[in-house]
Design a protein that fits this description.
7 strands, binds S-adenosylmethionine, 5 helices, globular, 7-stranded mixed sheet, alpha/beta
């Protein structure tokens, strides 16, 4: 995934089949000043309209690739680490989190940082793949994860992301499962 062309090439069929539709649905709820965490190659950038966006992406190649997708939009892309956000408390109206809680080493720390920089009453918009509710499929995910992590830049197939978010006390106001319950869309109200 470190290779910029490979990432978009690999993801293209999945994007066309369902992912792009899910991204659009979630981003239709985004308003105000937005922080996007781990923006990768900037797949979401074409979906922002008049939004004022700051996007952080630690991988240099992915970040450089994403700059080609900024065009004339109000999107500032910088290097950054979700576990140690460089922003002030309450700086953003919404935080966009797509396909990164599976990857970030300490995703609880990242979520607490997101809570801090998002305004009280702001929105945290999450699209993630998750550990399956079906026990057999969940075991297969457990077996595959050590190998998958090595080829997919640390991505875990088996994180219980919804439970982790709930256990941290976040208020999930909307939750939708998609693609055979492998993916979830969450709208979280940042009550703090
Ligand atoms: C699967 S990609 C998803 C990229 C993008 N969010 C998307 O939806 O296409 C995971 C991204 O998380 C980024 N990432 C990994 N660790 C991170 C961290 N600690 N802070 C911020 N982003 C991180 C990776 O560099 C990568 O761009």
């Amino acid at each position: 995934m470190g290779n910029k062309c490979n990432y978009d090439f690999f993801m293209d069929p999945i994007e066309k089949k369902f992912l792009n539709k899910l991204r659009k649905k979630l981003l239709s709820k985004a308003e105000g000043k937005i922080l996007e965490i781990g923006s990768g190659t900037g797949v979401n950038f074409e979906l922002y309209e008049k939004h004022d966006v700051v996007a952080i992406e630690p991988d240099n190649k992915l970040r450089m690739e994403s700059l080609n997708k900024v065009n004339d939009k109000k999107i500032k892309v910088i290097s950054g680490d979700a576990e140690n956000l460089v922003f002030e408390d309450n700086e953003f109206d919404a935080v966009v989190v797509m396909l990164i809680l599976c990857t970030i080493p300490d995703n609880k720390k990242a979520l607490l940082e997101i809570r801090r920089v998002c305004k009280s009453g702001g929105k945290i918009l999450v699209l993630e793949h998750i550990k399956h509710k079906n026990k057999v499929l969940a075991v297969i995910q457990d077996i595959l994860t050590p190998v998958w992590k090595k080829i997919a830049m640390g991505c875990h197939l088996n994180r219980k992301t919804v439970d982790i978010i709930r256990d941290l006390g976040f208020e999930i106001v909307e939750k939708e499962y998609h693609v055979g319950d492998n993916f979830v869309l969450l709208e979280i109200l940042n009550n703090k």
